[in-house]
Amino acid sequence: MSFEQTSGEAARFRLCFVCTGNICRSPMAETVMRSLAARSGLGDRVTITSAGTGDWHVGEPADARTLVALENRGYDASRHRGRQFDPSWFDDLDLVVVFDHSQERTLKSWASTDQDRSKVQLLLSFDAEHSQANDVPDPYYSDAALFDQVLSMIEKSCAALFRQITPGIRQGAL
């Protein structure tokens, strides 16, 4: 995966959402954040992607329940294909957002520098209402209702995250 800028291109903020298999939570967050960036007119200033800590679903589309939950709220993630996070990406990323403490531990253990470890942040930490909560639950082994609940948490937290990073993106400082 390349995060490189072309000559003359405005500085981009590079963000990767990482869950376990890259078919439920992280594709939801990637899709929601892309929508927020596009609606704000900053879509060309942000690179948003997602990945999983495991390789079980590499190349697969998002879980059907993920796609339905997103579609029911006006999002389209039909082009998503699962991939596994590569620790070499740390050099090119500004922020790596995870959904639970297990992923946080895994990603921080893969990071080779303190700077890269500091890029790994829990999604709920950006939302004041949920900042003390532990994890965004993994809906994979549950029903459609939990997918909807998880999507609501992701939408709220992504909106809070986007509000926090927008000033830096506008100024090209991030």
Walk me through what this model shows.
- Helices cover 39% and strands 12% of the residues.
- The protein has 5 helices and 4 strands.
- Strands 2-1-3-4 form a 4-stranded parallel beta sheet, with helices on both faces.
- Strand 1 (13-19), helix 1 and strand 2 (46-52) form a beta-alpha-beta unit.
- The radius of gyration is 15 Å and the shape is globular.
- The relative contact order is 0.20.
Describe the structure concisely for a colleague.
The protein is of the alpha/beta class. Helices cover 39% and strands 12% of the residues.
SSE inventory with pairings:
Blueprint (H helix, E strand, L loop, with lengths): L12 E7 L5 H16 L5 E7 L11 H9 L22 E4 L2 H10 L3 H5 L1 E3 L21 H28 L3
Helix pairs in contact: 1-5, 2-5
Rg estimate, integer Å:
15 Å
The helicity comes to 25-40%
Low-pLDDT runs of 5+ residues are 2-8
Span of the ends, CA to CA:
20 Å
Order of helices and strands: EHEHEHHEH
Across the major sheet, the strand order is 2-1-3-4
Total E-strand runs: 4
Class from helix and strand fractions:
alpha/beta
β-strand amount = 5-15%
**What's the story with the biggest beta sheet?**
4 strands, parallel
**Number of separate helices:** 5
Overall pLDDT, averaged?
91
How does the overall form come out from the CA principal axes? globular
